[in-house]
Amino acid sequence: MPQTSPLLTVMIAAARKASRSLVRDFGEVENLQVSRKGPADFVSSADHKAEQTLFEELSRVRPGYGFLMEERGNVEGTDKTNRWIVDPLDGTLNFLHGLPHFAISIALEREGVLIAGVVYNVIRDELFWAEKGVGAFLNDKRIRVAARNDMKEAVFATGSPWVGRPGHEVFLREMERVMAVSAGVRRWGAASLDLCYVAAGRFDGFWERNLSPWDVAAGAVIVREAGGLVKELDGGDFLKTGAVVAGNEKLLPQLTKTVRGA
Ligand code: IPD
Ligand code: CA
Ligand code: CA
Questions:
Q1: What superfamily in CATH does domain 6-142 come from?
Q2: Class in CATH terms, 151-260
Q3: Of 60, 108, 122, 253, whose CB count within 10 A is highest?
Q4: Which regions of the chain carry the CATH code 3.30.540.10?
């Protein structure tokens, strides 16, 4: 592992600590699939446990920083300049179904700017991390976005709205348009990892609407430090609107245009 800054060191340590209960609980969840009620309550407690560990660890090493967490919401800190943005379990539906594709996502926002991100795929033991101005890494290797610039060769990731939420028609039109001009579209169910896969050059781009800040904050730093772009689909602030598009500088405008035209 390359030398990490004190900030990244504490973020990574917190992610690893929270990952231990998630790994144990994931092993258990696989056994619960056969029960009719299913493992939903169990998963929600796994989620809360991981969040509690992250909250305690990050509060201990950086007292006073604020939090924006999926379960707890906004927790004001005495230090108004620093805020952790945390999703203890991104890819809940995968976790619930015993699909090994989910992550812990931690970002640090300083004076309104995202400056560091850690996304940890606990089952594959893949740790994506980045710090503004330092670069992006997967475990101990530097990562870069893919260089492809032809939509026909590109594979894109996306996510669809949950049951009961609006936006399915728009999503299907967007999918149809992107599928018609690209090599393929994947829907893997963890937005933080979709972004990291863009950073690592596995996916060529990503778009999704209605995301929350904790889904994308860490992944956004990682994509940017890997030489890619992360924008709001219609040009606003994606942390506010949740409409995100990511890719290299050649493909991002083409993907944005294709999605917007839907
Ligand atoms: C979800 C995942 C998924 C995305 C959803 C998110 P969760 O987060 O990131 O990929 O499509 O919009 O809510 O609920 O698993 O933490
Ligand atoms: Ca979550
Ligand atoms: Ca999430």
A1: Fructose-1,6-Bisphosphatase, subunit A, domain 1 (3.30.540.10)
A2: alpha beta
A3: 108
A4: 6-142
Q: Which ligand is nearest to the CA of 50?
A: 2
Residue nearest atom 2 in ligand 1 by C-alpha distance:
190
Phi, psi of 102 (to 5 degrees): -155, 165
Q: What are phi and psi of 117, to 5 degrees?
A: -145, 140
Pocket of ligand 1 (CB under 6 A): 87, 89-92, 159, 189-191, 208, 211, 215
pLDDT at 262: 83
Predicted confidence (pLDDT) at residue 31 exceeds the cutoff of 70: yes
pTM for the whole thing?
A: 0.96
Span between the terminal Cα atoms of the chain, in Å: 43
Among residues 81, 109, 100, 92, the alpha carbon closest in space to that of 11 is found at 109
